[in-house]
Amino acid sequence: MTLWMAFPTVRPLMASTVEAVGPCRKKLRVEVATEQVAGTRQEVLKEIRKAARIPGFRPGFAPEAMVASRYAREIEDELRRRVIPEHYRMALREQQLKVVGYPQIEEVQYQPGQPFRFVAEVDTAPEFALGEYKGIPVKKRGVVVNEEDVVRMLETLRDQQADFVTVEGRPLAMGDFAVIHYRGEVEGRPITELAPAAGTLGENKDFWIRCEPDAFLKGFCEQLIGARPGEQRHVRVDLPAELAPPALAGKTATYVVDLQAIKEKKLPELNDEFARKVGAESLAQLQEDLRKGMMAEREAEVAGELRQQVMTHLLGRISFDLPESLVAQETRSIVYDVVRENTMRGASKEQLEEKKDEIYGFAQKSARDRLRSSFILDAIAEKENITVTAEEMERRIAVMAQRYRTTPAKLKAQLAEKDALGEVEEQVRVSKTLDFLVANATVETVKA
User: Fold this and answer.
1) DSSP-derived 3-state class of residue 410
2) What single DSSP character describes residue 75?
3) CA 127 to CA 318: how far, in whole Å?
4) Rounded distance, CA 292 to CA 212, Å?
5) Minimal CA–CA distance to 96: which of 67, 70, 127?
6) Is 60 exceeded by the pLDDT of residue 430?
7) Among 430, 317, 320, which Cα is nearest to 384's?
8) d(Cα 422, Cα 428) in Å, to the nearest integer?
9) What is the C-alpha separation between 99 and 125, in angstroms, rounded?
10) pLDDT tens digit sequence for 385-400
11) How confident is the model at residue 199 (pLDDT cuts 50, 70, 90)?
12) Of the ranges 44-58, 64-78, 185-199, which is most confident?
């Protein structure tokens, strides 16, 4: 005789399914079992009951049914706050989804005594085949620092250490530095009134200008030649469209210029005294330090070129769709950076508005390239088990601290407070992955 043993049916506390709605877009449907929701709801009810203020009852002593009725909205809101995040994370693990960005929660369905259902629409990391990434062909230019390079750098240092002496007894000549006050007018009205945003194009005081053709505004310096300190000149120039605000573009301006002083640049002699002034023991030591510094700088440039060649190769060979929410987010970030940079350079709102389509197109392409590079390097790092050690993090933070003129300890605390240590770790991991790719590339050395 066959004996059948009855076992209680074990129902899962949560069930989930996944539906693809785009290349990198998924709908995650989640159902939480009635018993599980009921237990969480009872916990919420007890907590609210402890503080519930209902006439005729002390806090914590009102009947549960009355609390449940009076605070129904608060109970349901808190239930959602607890059930959705917890079971969303559980569903991600169950479905093995690698999500980027934040979920869009929709279609929340719940009634007491029923399962809790919701849909999370998410963007997921793209799936793609890496293929072969070792042996990438790259061209490395040779690095050379010759005597002419050292001489040019010495001249740059001399220029930086130059003194400016006041010229007496002669008028202004080409090559001199003129110290001037000036104010401009267009059609009889001050530029500062016509275009308040024009800034120093309208007026300035104690302005230093080296007298050369086309310096400041075309034709400006030539009309000052021969003037002596204390003399006033009227200078007429055409305002170029690319520099002037729209209200001034292409118009003729008249500047009243007062010459305050004439200055001449005096370069220091190249000797051991000069070398000690800039931090070297002798002129010979300074030359050697400059040679080593330029060599290190050029080698760093070549290393950057090799990294760029490796990434260009990978981007040209590996193609895949990207999560559009990330593309939009990265595009906005790049547009913001471009606008800020151009604003700091003096671009007006009108000029930026004229080029908005060009800026957006550049930003979107850059965003896609950045994101594709990031996903490719992340996949290679994972496959090659490239990780970041604590020592490597400390070294990177020390370098950053030096750049920002603070201590490593202070910077590390600031990064931790902003939850940005993970970003620094990712930068180090990316750098190590690129170094790995370059180290495993097929390198052809070419002439510089």
Assistant:
1) helix
2) H
3) 11
4) 35
5) 127
6) yes
7) 430
8) 10
9) 6
10) 999 999 999 999 999 9
11) confident
12) 185-199
| Arithmetic mean of pLDDT over the chain | 89
Please name the amino acid found at residue 280.
A
Strand order in the sheet with 116-124: 14-22, 25-32, 116-124, 99-109
What's the chain's length in residues? 448
| SS3 letters across 95-155 | HCCCEEEEEEEEEEECCCCCCEEEEEEEEECCCCCCCCCCCCEEEEECCCCCHHHHHHHHH
How many CA within 13 A on the CB side of residue 127? 9
Q: Which residue type occupies 332?
A: R
pLDDT of residue 244: 66
- 137-141 vs 442-446, strand pairing mode: parallel
pLDDT tens, residue by residue, 204-215 = 999 999 999 888
CA dist 217 and 250 (Å) reads 12
Tokens in use for 192?
């500062």
Distance CA 381, CA 384 (A): 5
Q: Model confidence at 245, in pLDDT bands (50, 70, 90)?
A: confident
Q: Does residue 313 have a pLDDT over 90?
A: yes
Q: Where are the beta strands (DSSP E) in 156-282?
A: 163-166, 177-186, 189-190, 203-210, 232-238, 252-266
Count of beta carbons in the 10 Å neighbourhood of residue 194: 18
Tokens at residue 315, please? 């981007």
Contact 128, 318 (CB under 8 A): yes
pTM of the shown model: 0.70
